[in-house]
Amino acid sequence: MRAGHGDAGCSDCSAPLPEGGVIDHLTPISRGGLSTVANMLMVCVVCNSSKKDRLMDEWSPPLLVIR
Q1: CA distance from start to end of the chain
Q2: Segments of the chain assigned E as strands
Q3: Is 46 buried (19+), middle (13-18) or exposed (0-12) by CB count in 10 A?
Q4: pTM of this prediction?
Q5: Burial, 63: exposed, middle or buried (Cβ in 10 Å; 0-12, 13-18, 19+)?
Q6: How many CB atoms within 10 Å of residue 7?
Q7: Where are the domains of the chain?
Q8: Sign of dihedral through CA atoms 40, 9, 15, 13?
Q9: What are phi and psi of 18, to 5 degrees?
Q10: 46, 12 in Cβ contact below 8 A?
Q11: Segment 19-66, tens digit of pLDDT
């Protein structure tokens, strides 16, 4: 998953992923999602933590704050 994502930023907010990011399920496992490539994205920890077990249409990425 990480190798295929390359050096692209967070799939949700475009923030850089210096640590390689985390894998997020588009449809969470708790809501019937599977751990398939088609159901996973590389995202930053902030987006992953804020999305929790919501579907994409139930959630919006936090605003990216550049310091």
Answers
A1: 28
A2: 22-25, 40-43
A3: middle
A4: 0.80
A5: exposed
A6: 7
A7: 2-51
A8: negative
A9: -60, -30
A10: no
A11: 778 999 999 999 999 999 999 999 999 999 999 999 989 998 887 555
